[in-house]
Task: structure prediction
Amino acid sequence: MSKRLKVALGCGVPTLLGLILIGGCTALLGKAADDVGKDLDKNHDSAVVAPGGAAKADTESKGGAPGIANDAKVTSCKVEDGEFGIKELDVKIEYVNSGDRRFTYIAEGEITVNGEKKSDILSTGQNLAPGQKYTDENAGGLAFEVAKSAKTADKIECKLIKVSRNAF
Result:
């Protein structure tokens, strides 16, 4: 057997086996990552609240329980006099877990004054058991400028745009 053939067989066969091994590991890791992604999708729901107030949950298309947009609602949206005579925007969001396990909710929305967007709402209700209620009484914390510049005749509205929930 020639020297070149010995080198080709000595280097080529291990190289080929190594490439097959790397390809197999890559396929296994890809499958595992896909399975983990599917499990995570089962634990996350979100709903977008339409301008008319109707909610369309992403879970309806996944075969999940609809109505998570009904799990969060604005219960208060008004300007009040706070401590030391400073105007504060009182925004409260109430959460009720209608799911079958513990969820953490994230509600995103906007605050409008006379129809013009002035600020955002970001609120969370964490680790709620099935049927448990929680009210975030500080949901208007980002809107101090809205309260500061509000006039008596202004129409202030607080709207939820998206509600998401994640299971543990």
